[in-house]
Write a structure and sequence with these properties.
This protein is mainly β. Helices cover 10% and strands 57% of the residues. It has one helix spanning 27-35, and strands at residues 2-13, 18-23, 38-54, 65-79. The longest helix is centred in the middle third of the chain and has 9 residues, at 27-35.
Length: 88
């Protein structure tokens, strides 16, 4: 089984030197999957760039620009009936 979880969103306004970050904790989801008898085989993280734009076209702000993106975790599990927690 394979699935992905958005881990963080990032937006930076370079001209204004500001950035926003939203973070997510994947551990509760990964632990719940493992509790059902799945074994984590592989995990990777990638940055997916979003739209970026020059703010010069919107207003005369010098060299201001913005960029956004999302960090996504990809997880691969294999079935392992031996790993199910007690009571399941």
């Amino acid at each position: 089984m394979q699935f992905s979880i958005p881990l963080a969103r990032h937006e930076a306004k370079l001209g204004a030197k500001s950035a926003t970050h939203e973070l997510a904790d994947p551990n509760p989801i990964l632990n719940a999957v493992a509790d059902e008898g799945w074994r984590l085989v592989d995990a990777s993280v990638v940055y997916l760039p979003g739209a970026s734009a020059s703010l010069n076209a919107i207003a005369d702000l010098g060299s201001a620009s913005s960029a956004r993106g999302t960090v996504v975790g990809y997880y691969t599990f294999s079935r392992d009936g031996q790993m199910r927690t007690a009571g399941h």
